[in-house]
Structure prediction request, 826 residues.
Amino acid sequence: MKQLLLLTLVCITINLVGQVDPSGKKILKAIYVENAPKIDGVLDESVWDQAPIATDFVENTPNPGRKASQRTEVKVLYTTEGIYIGAKMYDTAPDSILKQLSVRDATGNVNADNFAVYIDGMYTQQTDFTFQVTAAGVQVDQNDGDGIWDAVWKSGVKIVEDGWVAELEIPYSQLRFPKSDIQTWGINFGRNIRRSRQGFFWSNIDPTQDNEVQQQGLLKGIERIQPPVRLSFTPYVAGYLNHAYDGATGKHTFTPNFSAGADMKYGINESFTLDVALVPDFGDVQSDNLVFNLSPFEIYYAERRPFFTEGVELFSRANLFYSRRIGSSPARYRLAAQQLDSTEFITKNPEKPYLINALKVSGRTKKGLGLGLFNAVTAPAFAQIQNDSGVTRRYETESFTNYNVVVVDQQFWRHSYVSLINASVVRFGGYTDALATGTEFKIADKKNVYGVAGSAAMSHRFLDTLKHNKDYDNGYRYDISFQKFSGNFRFRVRQQTMSKDYNINDIGFVGRTNFINTSAWVGYNTYQPFGHILRMWSGLDFSYEMLYNPAVFTRIQVGGEWGATLTNFLSLGADFRIEPMGYNDYFEARTDGQVWAKPTWTRINFWFSSDYRKVFALDGGLNYRRFWGQGAWAASDVIGARLKPLIRFSDNFNMILSADLTVRRNSLGYVTKTTDNGTGEQQIIFGSRFRQDLETSISANYLFTNKISLTLRVRHYWAVVDYNQFYGLSTNGQMNDIIYWGDHDTNFNAFNIDLIFRWRFAPGSELNVVWKNAILSYGTDPNYDYFNNFGGMFETGQNNQFSIKALYYLDFFTLFKKKNRGKRLN
Prediction:
């Protein structure tokens, strides 16, 4: 009788966890329970004994395909409200488990073991949700790789005598799955042992393949569950005190401010979600890394406002949407100064219009159809003008403006997709209106080895006649490539074309236009260790470029790279780039059709990154670029060096220092345009200059607990530009000696301090106390003494902002839990 019972038990266990589907995927069965376990990192409830065990993890790094060196066991339960994951990470040296604390979602180089679950609820085998917790209890979550996305879930961890335990509760409201009586989800579990830098997966992930989601296992057993009502509110209140000091006048100005609003999320159905920001506030967002720009192109600054960075994967298709355009500088901001008569002056000219609200609808069906709608509205902006008699008037610098993005994206064959996207800006009152329509696609074979990828777009602008001398402009671009996506050896053949009038900068971002570029790249990666190398990668590329209009040759570029991670986890590498025929630059002169002939140049770069498990780690690099020209180009070169030490004082306190220095000797470039008094001809002035850019920063984190942190970031950027000779640019692109006495020397400083106290006092709820200091100084007297320059910078004036902001997460399902408690379908 005992033998029969034992055989029955073995058969049941094999049936639950030993199955594979016809494609070879591992299968795990989830078990339904009436009462959820307590999330405390202790798997002592009897309900856990009912669940099958997922084990037999496979190493992914640094030795792909090997059996895991430490045992891991994972179980899955579910109720009518959510799923529960219990994981036991056995460890033969539990006293060596690393558990450094970090800020939520910032665990990339943190010394802490972690456990993760990857869930593809729609089972499209294209996208998934990631929920990860470290041995220190720090949470990380991602939506299709989007690290800004924040879910509301619970976790508990505990170090035990033979390893550590992680327990997770993930509400259904944070997932997406179809309305089906019987669910089949894609699932995988991952574990990292930090002290050995080993990573493991339950369902093996082949690093030579491009799609990890398709390599997941299957979760079965979830039945008769109805997706819940997904409705939540996150109201906020914020108070600000701004202090401005004007160094020229010695005047101090204090300005208090108060704001309140809310974010709302509503699950339209099991696939799509509506996000609304009502009277949004972004005063506590990290300061921009401002730099001094001498190029003819706009500087791209990263978006940091959470609403515009979270869940925007669909809206990034075809690169038509740059969310920083929303609430950017008013369209007629600079025209205000031209409206003054001799008795008037500007008393107020807002640099940003007021953002009234923003909303987005996004999601994807079980059949892989993704839909996205984004809309934002900004209020009009006005400059205030006053005359000598005290009479004031207003000049409108931005009208009521509507931003709109619509995306349709269809996935198929597990690796492929086709997208259509339309982005538009409508400004009322004769301002520039803009429209951009594009597509992005990837069509690969069923094994995702070979395929075609690319994008295309058209722009159309109805122009503001106060700023332009024509009514509209149209442009287009396309980018198409044939690639090998998977395997150790990969390649890409690509062509990019962008017409002269392609312009999406009302809602997107484009820098250089008017070019045709044909390129090829080959790369080879090794993932299996050999000798003293754990992993190695390399590549070579070639490109041929010409102007789109007129169709003339501009340059050829050749480049390559090599990098490796050694067995002591030191990573190092080098790359090079050559323009063997120089560069016929049609952009630097800021004059249509005017070329600037640059000589042949070469560049080489070396870098290294030490083992981040150490108390002290160091990253760094050195690069050198040389122009091989005569005359004005003699001895023209660029030297760059960077160092980034990381110091871990304890599991609670760490600091990263950074210094990046670039010195350009005999650097040549555009200065200005003048008109000859005798002939009336325009003269384009170029100059030879010494330029030095130094960026230093300190980032320090003190973690009181896994939910309370104090973060300090101090950044100083200093640029010195010192001209020694000027030239006139001839029509053939050469530079000739001229007599010019203009003063264009520059001493530029941008200094920021961001000090943030953050307390996540409840799931989805935070209290933030922030101090921000900003100094922006610009002078024409180069100062090469660092400390003298640093001290003088504070005399020019500064701005301080103190703020307190509280957000509280309210979930409809939780507030009315009894009334809306999930039920199993009959």
Q: What stands out?
A: Residues 52 and 75 are 6 Å apart (CA to CA).
